[in-house]
Design a protein that fits this description.
The chain is an alpha+beta fold. It has five helices and 13 strands. Strand 4 and strand 5 form a beta hairpin. The longest helix is centred in the C-terminal third of the chain and has 18 residues. The radius of gyration is 41 Å and the shape is elongated.
């Protein structure tokens, strides 16, 4: 795992005003937690930023050198605060540890190679990105690598399938699924809508003929019509 030496000093600056003053001078406010105590410290901003940018900062074993006691305080990063707009580090919390006592920590799962099921059109779904382990601080791995090339469609990788080095114990539930290769989704083709059957044209013509016929029945014969006109 990554080991880093970080120089630090105890700080008297507290509150938002003190933190802003430190940042203007290239320093970052931090806190070192140890055995129920907390010590406000300050570290060089560029050193912590470089550590976090390396990708392994959250799991790095850090030797904090306090100028006041000339002693190395072995620690891990417990938490940190980022500026939501500029994405810059604002504050870091460290937790002091003993190199001789096992600790519980999360470590990333590193997938190597591509499952054979993907080449057949399957879809990879990763449900877990890291697992919890227990080990000595000096044994913390940068990640747990796993070769998933044998996975076919319909197969899954569980926590119980992982192998780790001697001295490392997996704490996460062994029944949990890390990733699975599912079959591709087949879209259903909608059935064509049934055509609306139009009323036969002959029916319309029949209606017209019936109406015409009714009109003809109402028309008086020509002779009767002429007699009525003479009487009038």
């Amino acid at each position: 795992m990554q080991k880093v030496v970080l120089k630090a000093e105890k700080r008297a600056e507290i509150g938002k005003g003190g933190a802003r003053s430190l940042r203007r001078h290239g320093m970052m406010p931090a806190v070192l937690y140890a055995a129920g105590t907390s010590t406000p410290i300050k570290v060089l901003s560029k050193e912590v930023t470089k550590l976090m940018a390396s990708g392994g900062g959250e799991h790095a074993l850090i030797a904090i050198e306090l100028s006041e006691d000339k002693k190395d305080h072995w620690a891990l990063i417990k938490d940190y605060q980022l500026d939501p707009i500029r994405n810059e580090l604002l504050h870091v919390d460290f937790i002091e540890i003993s190199l001789e006592k096992k600790i519980k920590i999360t470590t990333p799962i590193i997938i190597t190679k591509e499952p054979m099921g993907i080449k057949k059109g399957g879809i990879l779904q990763q449900l877990m990105r890291d697992i919890e382990i227990e080990c000595l601080p000096t044994q913390i791995p940068e990640g747990i690598e796993v070769d998933v090339s044998p996975l076919d469609i319909g197969h899954s990788l569980h926590v119980s399938d992982l192998t780790v080095k001697e001295g490392i114990k997996i704490i996460s539930d062994p029944k949990k699924v890390i990733l699975t290769v599912t079959a591709p989704v087949v879209e259903e083709v909608a059935a064509p809508a049934e055509a609306v059957v139009a009323e036969p044209e002959v029916v319309k013509k029949g209606k017209v003929k019936e109406e015409e016929a009714a009109g003809e029945e109402k028309e008086e014969p020509k002779g009767q019509k002429e007699q009525k006109e003479k009487k009038e």
